[in-house]
Amino acid sequence: MPRPVLLLCLIFLSFNLSAEPRWWMEEPIRLIQTNLRETDSVLNPVELIEQVEAFGANTLLFSIGGIVAHYPTQVPLHYPSEFLVEGKDVVGEVIREAHNRGIRVIGRFDFSRARQQVYDAHPEWFFKNREGNPVVDDNGLHSSCINGGYYHQKAIEVLTEALERYEVDGLFFNWFGNIRSDYKGNDIGLCHCEECAKRFRAAYGRSIPDEPDPEYNQFMFDSSSEVARMFRELIKDKRPKALFMTYIEQYTDGIVSESDFYKWRPLPQWLYSSSENVNRALNTEPDKMTFNLVMPYTEMRYRFAATSGHGLNALLYQNVAHGGFPAFVVLGTFDQPDRTGLNAVQPFFAWHKKNEALLTGQKNAARVLLYARQGPNWSSYNRDYRGFFRLLSELHIPFFVTNRLDGLSPEEVDLVVVPGGEVPSEIQAFIERGGRALIAGTRHPGMNLPPAVRLWRDTKSSYMRIDNHDAFPSLLETWALFWEGEYLELESTADQPITLIPPGQFGPPDKVSTLAEKTDKPGLIRQSFGAGKFTFIPWNIGRLYHDFSSDKHRLLISDLLDVLLEGKRQLKTNAHPLVEMTLMRQPSTGETLLHLVNLSGHSGTAFFEPVPQTEVSITVKGSFESARPLRESQVLGLSVDSGFTSLVLSSLKDYEVIVLD
Asked: Residue 375: its pLDDT value, please?
C-alpha cells in the first residue's frame, strides 16, 4: 500500500475508533507551558490568561496536581499547596477564564514523587534501590515506582477527582515511569521494590539485574504501558474529548518530547533536536500529534537563565518545518527574571497565528526514508542514526523518519537509508520489488551478499582506499579515507570500488606507513537484489560523521546518493549546509511548503544571529506555477524544465517558508 494511502487509512481508522472529534489533530495549536512552583498558587488567573492571549498562545499546559495540588483537593495523601488561599480554586478559575477566551487547557500531573507523609503511610508504593533504600531528593520527596500503589491506586483517585471537577481539554503526565536519574543527573539505578521484584521474576524467572538489559528495558516498557492504559481508560470515560499525552507512544493521543541546549548534554551539541523529535513522531505515529516542548533555560539547575533567543527560535522553526507547532515552556508565570527568551520567541507565535491555516496539518512530502529502529531497546540517541540525520540535512535531501514500514513501495519512496546494517524484512521486500537502499553498519544485512569473514573491533590507524573514482567525482583528489572502530569483513567480490587498508605504523614520523599495502577486503559493496539495488558500507560511517564530521565522509555519501537516486534528487540548492530544508504538503489546499531554517548562527555551544544568505537558488521536483514567501516580501521568478521547478530566493535571514502551487 502506498505511504499516503496508508496514512489516510490510519487516520480514518483512528477517527472511527473515537466517537468524539480530536481537537488536537484538527485545530491549530500554539502552546505555552507554565510549570508552576508551589508559591505560584497565589497567581491571578485573569492576569495569567491575558498574558497567554497576548503572547499569541491558544493552548495552556497548566499544573493541577500530583506533587502539589493547586486546588483544594479532598483526596487523602494528596496535598494542596501551602500557598493556596483558603476558599480559592486557582485551577478552576484558570480553566474558566481560558475557556471564556477560547484557550484550551491541558492539565499537568506529576506522580513521580510524593511527600514523606505518603511514604510513611505506604512505603511499598515507592522506588527502592539495590540496597532496599528509598530515593529521596533535597526537598524530601520520595521517588515512586510505576508498579506501586501510588500509580495504580492513588493516582487513579486523584485523576478521578480532577476529571469530575474540571472540564480540561487534555492531561499531561510528567516523568512518567521509573526514571533512572534524579534532577541533578545522578544515576539512581533500577527499582528493586517488592512489586518490581515479584513481577520481574514472574515474567523472566530471575532477579532484577544491577544494570538495565534488554529484558529489563522490556519490563519497564510493559509496566509503563500498563499504567498508560489505565489512565487512558479513565480519561476517556470521564472526559471523552480530552487529550491524553505523556512521553510514551502506547495508549496516548499525543507524544511529548523536549528540545533544549542543556549544558550537560554530551558534545557535539545536537543541532537537530526539534527536527528529529517532530519528524520521527509524526511519521511513525501519523494518527497522533507530537508536542515537542522547547525548553528555554540553560538546564534544570539554572531554570531562570534563558539560553540564546536565536537558538530557541531555531528549535521552534524546526517544530513547524517538520509539521508541528510552536510549544514553549516557562517556570512559574510570565514574570521572569530573564525575559530575553520570552521576548525572542513571541514574534514567532504571532507570525504562526497569522498563518495558522496554512501551517496546520502539514504532511511530509519527502521521498527518502531514514529508518529508525523501534522497540524499548532502541534510542534516538543512536550515533549511527544521528550521523545520517545530519548528513541528509546538510546535503539538503528531504527525508522522513519512521519505523513504520507497512506498505513501503518503490513508487512512493525513492530511497531507504538504513543505519546500523540491520535490515528488516519489509525493507528487503522493498528492494526486491525495485527499491533502492543505502545500508551502513557492521551487521550483515543478508540479501545475497557474500558471507562475513570476521568482525574487526576497535580498529585504529587504518584507512579505506578508493580504488575506482568513477562513482565518486567529489573525491578525485582523495584515495585514502579515515575510519576507525568496527568493520565487518566480507568475502571479496568483483565490484570493489573501496577496499580496506589495514592498520599501519603511525609514529614516529620517520616510520609512518606508506599505505602501499593493497587488499581485496571490501569497504563498500554495490549489489542487485531482485529488481532493486542497494549499497552496503560495512563500517559505521554514520557514527563517525556524528562524532568527527569528516568532509570526505560527507562527500562520499553525497556521491552515493546521486548514484542511487540516478542523479534526480528531489531538491537541489546552493544554500549553505546549515540551512535546513524540508518539503511539506498542505492537504487542504494541495500546496507544497518549502521550509528553510538558517542554522548558520550555531558555533560549538553558542547561538548567534544567523548569517544572512543571498541569492539562494533552489530546484524542486514538480511543476509549479507560483511561489510566494510567507515571511519576507519578495517576488520569486520560476522556471520549469522536465518536471523540475527552479527559483531564486534573493534573501534568507533566519527562517522562510515558500509556498509552491
From this structure: 66
